[in-house]
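Weekly sync, protein design subgroup
Attendees: M.S., D.O., the rotation student, P.L. (late)

Item 1: inverse folding check
M.S. brought a backbone from last month's batch and wanted to see whether the design step gives back something sensible before we order anything. D.O. pointed out we never logged the input encoding, so this time it goes straight into the notes. Structure tokens as presented (128 positions):
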């Protein structure tokens, strides 16, 4: 059963890769400015970005990513009301800012911890 977390939104972006430290610095600034939790997979392909927070902040952070003109930018899950899996209702947004993972496996583990693993797998095209 899925339950919506009160007032929180999330979004998922896929790119070809994330390797520019200058762009990552801009993403960190945007995460801090818009008071959101953002997670990215830094390094080779695929580049993955996840954002969670209040609706306005999530939308503004997604706009900031779009403006950086990443190669093969795909907003695979548009900003929408966040639904946690397994009946988890706690916000889980205990930290704000930008965090980096260097593997898809580590990214997936964080998605499990945040109770959005199935949603993430569907967005990435790993499950239907």
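Designed sequence read out in the meeting:
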């Amino acid at each position: 059963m899925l339950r919506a977390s009160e007032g929180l939104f999330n979004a998922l972006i896929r790119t070809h890769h994330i390797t520019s430290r200058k762009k990552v610095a801009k993403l960190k600034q945007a995460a801090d400015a818009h008071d959101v939790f953002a997670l990215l997979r830094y390094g080779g392909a695929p580049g993955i970005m996840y954002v969670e927070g209040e609706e306005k902040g999530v939308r503004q952070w997604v706009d900031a990513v779009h403006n950086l003109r990443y190669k093969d930018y795909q907003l695979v899950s548009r900003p929408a009301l966040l639904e946690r899996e397994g009946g988890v209702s706690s916000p889980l947004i205990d930290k704000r800012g930008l965090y980096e993972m260097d593997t898809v496996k580590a990214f997936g583990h964080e998605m499990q911890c945040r109770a959005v693993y199935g949603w993430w797998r569907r967005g990435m095209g790993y499950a239907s």
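Discussion: The chain has one domain: 3-124. Helices lie at 21-34, 55-67, 104-113, 117-124.
Action: P.L. to compare against the previous round before Friday.
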